[in-house]
Design a protein that fits this description.
Blueprint: E1 12-18, H1 34-37, H2 41-49, E2 51-55, H3 66-73, H4 78-81, H5 86-92, E3 102-112, E4 115-118, H6 126-140, E5 145-151, E6 154-159, H7 188-203, H8 206-213, E7 221-228, H9 236-240, E8 244-247, H10 251-259, E9 263-264, H11 278-288, E10 294-299, H12 301-307, H13 311-335, E11 339-344, E12 361-366, H14 378-381, E13 386-387, H15 390-397
Parallel strand pairs: 1-10, 1-11, 2-13, 8-9, 8-10
Antiparallel strand pairs: 2-12, 3-4, 3-6, 3-7, 5-6, 11-12
Length: 402
């Protein structure tokens, strides 16, 4: 593979992360991937007129979660900086952690006949979910354990002077017996008891009775996972000499930005799902450049579609990123030379497994001093350079060397 030369210096930068966009060949698509099928003229332009290759965002031996992968894309070494997903989401919710406290991501899920049926409780809305979390907090909180409202099905459990447990993300075990994947380790009995109590309390809830009557899946249990202590992360501005801003609907990415000292840009209409306001994200990203030299724009939609097994919706999310986000950003590049874009997924979320995988993912940098790409797909990107880490790729994007 040819070696990519460093690109010329630019003043402002935007990374566009299509969460889980990369995939495996899909039989329903004639052995093509969603990226190969989707109409993506802007992505293809970035690959053909810029540079394109593969990057290994997930270090060997680490889980292919969005936490690990996006930490890498922000320029940090997950092996040194990563402590768990929960404390990142705690930062996004403004929940302070003591030095011995643990925070766990806490999904509202649907359990049916001994199986974990749905990791998102039918993508429960934030208002309804908040009522259920409030109910559980009122009935089951203690001096040690508290529940905190987040967004949609994504919430937080904090454990004062807690324990590090072995847990499994619920999106990894849809359709499997949940009893085989309960938390393990010293203190697991405390969390398992809380999960059992949540099933009893939520089953009796009027909210879930109304959901059942409306044909919606019940949010009938909590599922804590991804626990950890507060991490120590160097400020992005000190590390790279650039002020940063983050645009996302996902607490995890907000938390990463907060720990990195970046400004969190709130965008009306973003949902973290396939119905998000893509165009608003692009508008706010361009506006953020007035104060920030670096914008990290994250779109959760392709990942959510893949987890739910919604192939056409994943393709649609990719096309919306292309037409509603990349098109106006590329137009701005054409009007001012001091702006550079980079597009990539954080990880693959293949339709055949409906969860994350850790293979290298395609990136495209536009503009670039060396061209030679063709189109933006997993296969085409394999003809370009293979970058060994997200941090090395960010150095390249910013015209730096690791």
């Amino acid at each position: 593979m040819r070696k990519l030369k460093p690109i010329a210096a630019a003043q402002r930068y935007i990374i566009i992360v299509g969460d889980g966009m990369a995939d495996h060949p899909v039989s329903e698509l004639g052995g093509r991937t969603p990226l190969e099928v989707a109409a993506t003229p802007c992505m293809d332009l970035m690959a053909a007129e810029g540079c394109c290759g593969l990057v290994q965002t997930v270090p060997a031996g680490m889980p292919p979660g969005s936490d690990v992968a996006n930490l890498s894309l922000m320029g940090y070494d997950p092996a040194a900086a990563y402590t768990g997903r929960g404390p990142l989401e705690a930062a996004a919710l403004g929940v302070a952690l003591g030095p011995e406290d643990y925070a766990y991501r806490c999904n509202l899920v649907t359990l049916t006949d001994g199986m974990l049926e749905d990791y998102s409780a039918d993508h429960i809305d934030s208002a309804t979910a908040g009522e259920l979390i409030d109910l559980l907090q009122k009935k089951e909180s203690s001096k040690e354990i508290s529940l905190h409202k987040g967004t949609a099905y994504r919430h937080l459990l904090t454990w004062r002077n807690g324990k590090a447990l072995q847990t499994v993300p619920p999106h990894d075990i849809q359709g499997r017996p949940f009893a085989d994947y309960l938390p393990q380790g010293d203190g697991a009995d405390i969390i398992i008891h809380l999960m059992k109590r949540s099933r009893e309390i939520l089953a009796a809830s009027d909210i879930n009775r109304r959901r059942a009557a409306a044909g919606l899946k019940p949010a009938n249990s909590i599922w804590p996972w991804g626990g950890g202590k507060a991490p120590a992360i160097a400020p992005f501005a000190r590390k790279y000499g650039l002020s940063g801003a983050v645009i996302t609907a996902v607490d995890l990415i907000r938390g990463l930005g907060i720990y990195a000292g970046m400004r969190i840009v709130e965008v009306p209409g973003v949902t973290g799902y396939i119905d998000t306001d893509y165009a608003a994200k692009a508008d706010y990203a361009l506006a953020a450049l007035d104060e920030a030299g670096f914008v990290f724009l994250h779109v959760e939609a392709p990942d959510e579609a893949a987890h739910a097994g919604l192939l056409r919706e994943k393709i649609g999310a990719i096309e919306n990123i292309d037409s509603q986000i990349l098109a106006p950003l590329i137009d701005r590049v054409g009007k001012e030379g001091a702006l550079r874009l980079m597009l990539l997924p954080d990880h693959a979320t293949p339709m055949d497994i409906r969860t994350h995988s850790s293979e290298p993912v395609p990136f495209a940098i536009f503009p670039a001093s060396e061209k030679g790409g063709s189109i933006y797909t997993e296969k085409a990107a394999a003809a370009g350079p293979l970058i060994k880490s997200g941090a090395e790729l960010l150095d390249l994007f910013l015209s730096r060397r690791a």
